[in-house]
Amino acid sequence: MAVSFTIRAGxxxxxxxxxxxxxxxxxxxxxxxxxxxxxxxxxxxxxxxxNTEANRQAYRTLLVTAPGLGQYISGAILFExxxxxxxxxGKKMVDVLVAQNIMPGIKVDKGLVPLAGSNDESWCxxxxxxxxxxxxxxxxxxxxxxxxxxxxxxxxxxxxxVKEAAWxxxxxxxxxxxxxxxxxxxxxxxxxxxxGIERTFExxxxxxxxxxxxxxxxxxxxxxxxxxxxxxTPGAECKEKATPEQVAEYTLKLLHRRIPPAVPGIxxxxxxxxxxxxxxxxxxxxxxxxxxxxSFSYARALQNTCLKTWGGRPENVKAAQDTLLVRxxxxxxxxxxxxTGEGESAEAKEGMYVKNYSx
Amino acid sequence: xxxxVGKYADExxxxxxxxxxxxxxxxxxxxxxxxxxxxxxxxxxxNIESNRQALRELLFTSPxxxSYLSGVILFExxxxxxxxxGKxxxxxxIENSVIPGIKVDKGTVEIAGTNSExxxxxxxxxxxxxxxxxxxxxxxxxxxxxxxxxxxEPSELAIQQNAQxxxxxxxxxxxxxxxxxxxxxxxxxxxxxxxxxAAVTEKVLAAVYKALNDHHVLLEGTLLKPNMVTPGSxxxxxxxxxxxxxxxxALRRTVPPAVPGIxxxxxxxxxxxxxxxxxxxxxxxxxxxxxxxxxxxxxxxxxxxxxxxxxxxxxxxxxxxxxxRCKANSxxxxxxxxxxxxxxxxSESLYVxxxxx
Lengths: 359, 357
Hints:
Chain A: One of its GO terms (cellular component) is chloroplast. Chain A: This is Fructose-bisphosphate aldolase. The structure holds 2 protein chains of 2 kinds. The termini of chain A are far apart. In chain A, 55% of the residues are buried. By secondary structure, chain A is an alpha/beta fold. In chain A, the strands form 2 sheets. An 8-stranded parallel β-barrel of chain A has the order 1-2-3-6-7-8-9-10, surrounded by 7 helices. Chain A has a two-stranded antiparallel ribbon with strand order 4-5. Chain A has helices spanning 13-23, 37-46, 53-64, 80-83, 93-99, 130-140, 159-178, 197-217, 244-258, 275-285, 300-310, 317-335, 346-349; strands at 29-33, 73-78, 103-107, 112-114, 122-124, 144-151, 182-189, 226-227, 265-268, 293-298. The longest helix of chain B is centred in the middle third of the chain and has 21 residues, at 194-214. By secondary structure, chain B is α/β, with parallel strands linked by helices. In chain B, the strands form 2 sheets. An 8-stranded parallel sheet of chain B has the order 8-7-6-3-2-1-10-9. In chain B, strands 4-5 form a two-stranded antiparallel ribbon. In chain B, helix 9 (240-254) packs across helix 10 (271-283) and helix 10 packs antiparallel against helix 11. Helix content of chain B is 44%, strand content 14%. Chain B contains 13 helices and 10 strands. The chains are: A alpha/beta, B alpha/beta.
């Protein structure tokens, strides 16, 4: 439908649409490997490794060279360091990904800072110089971007925090599109809190209404974006747990009420769920056809067991890559609604919720 | 709360879904007394109650026509009228599985400080009126907001005012058991091209859905009645396929899948144009999670009224004409309209500059 893109379309319209569609292809999702150096340091520390560039390079090499990863992974989000890095074999990370049929993406936000005048809430920085940064990342081979802001239910959320989160995302999305990058729009509603699933549902509906309204005001072209929402679940400290079917019911209702069909893909974040939980919930959402591709953009829920299996040892690389492929395949099946959950390890079922988690 | 879950929620969802049944659509027969007077005048018929009743009886008793309709929008007077045999119109409709609806707005007035932009009136006692209408058998309502395209129009004020008005009307309806048809009409008047119409339509619909969400309206219990995206009335025409592409693209960008049906207004399009455009939209191979159907006034009644000309002897022929248009539009909702069975009347443009209901 080429004719419709003349409304709200910039120079890169056709390419953005193509990129978004490719990332949102059936049976595939995103590997989020864009941990900042500080956060990556926490991961490495958990397996007794020092936070050096060499170690970060070794770990990311392990991930991007997993054979056949592109069968299940359509895009990989990178941190800036990694975008400009080479593998331990001397090949550019981006080239390895492209050869694997995986599109390189780039985290472009500059993290969360306290939001003045709010109820102890945060806002996300990164708009200054964003246009030229996006242009440079495009030159380097990135084709999509990611910006993560958060909303906290125990802190309100205040109308101010929600408005700022939505407006910041809308501004970022417009700038990214202007410079050739498909923006992944991520307003994470944090798991922290003892609230029930109804409250999460209420907040999520408000947040997404704001996000779409401001994106419309900023003339963002929806056929060239992807969304990265949190699933609708009870808070981590809520006494009542929800089944995957309940999570699916609430989350799908949210999507049906707020997401226009022009958006090609919805790639859920895992936010502290265990590897298996994240897969089960995704699978439950794909039991019937949806008007958009409903998939994953997981970091911890794809990498956790892999990281532990590697433990920093070269002799463990193959075994670690195998576990990564196991998780990638499981989520691929979940995207198709065909995951059965057989043969999952105890490790994979372990929750990864961390209170007050900061990237 | 995040969406309205009052005592009528289940019924609203069921009603909206039924009205959006593929293969069916809505007859907009809610012309106010003043407006229907213009129709009658065009065939030299006096604007008295018995004539208004006669026209509506002609429509509602057309053999087989009702099977192509899921709803009929009525004006208040008609809601309480009967056939010449004494049967309430509402009963005639319900017995034929057609849901009665009711126009609840009280027309437009100018917004001070704008360049002749308008807002819609009708909030006073709206809740109580809706309750009465529900008792009388109505199960859906309609409220028409109007925006126009100009060098500086629609203004932010006009968009916000009309969006808020539609949202407030919608939630009051839902509180009282009526499915609200949300109608933000962007007029065709002007020499703008189709792209301009598309941009304005998208902006207006984004504001409308933001307002509906802010007012906790249950989207699954609503219907949308938008304009099709077309060039301005003073601009060169384009094909139905082009209208279909721009219209469906605009809707895909603004209307969440929770809305079960989109029932287009015909504006000033001829009967045949409106049907061809609707058909082209339903043929488009792209994901459309809502039904695309019709809520036509003039585009269903024009030839029928002409054929009737106020004479009893003409009723059967007029009813045939009405049936033909209902059938054609039903086929169009399925993308199966073969076209070409339009006579001169059906192809006649119904555009009136500065049209006022």
